[in-house]
Amino acid sequence: MFKQRPYSDRSQLTIFQICAIKSLYIISNYQHFMAQQITCQVESFWDAEAKVWVATSADLPGLATEADTIEALSQKLREMIPELMVLNQIISSDYVGNIEFKLTSYRQEEIKVAS
Q: Which of 21, 62, 63, 99 could form a disulfide with 57 if both were Cys (CB 3.0 to 4.6 A apart)?
């Protein structure tokens, strides 16, 4: 007599069922990954008097820093943002995931043209 096996035996699963299970697994992992993504908007401007780039963020209380170049400013932000997020209790000290920061810079200069 033929004895039907439960679906826990993969040999009895159809291709459609296997694909559905894999899709659910992929979606679950993607949602977990997306939940771990944190974004911080940072604004910077050129302070002509001090000759430095100044950065602040409405998303992150306490963020205020400056640097001679935009590249140096970006490097400082990579170190400061995670530290400030822990201090502001946005993430825990054992957080594992990604933090994205979007740096918008503004610089205005005046060009004197002699006639």
A: 63
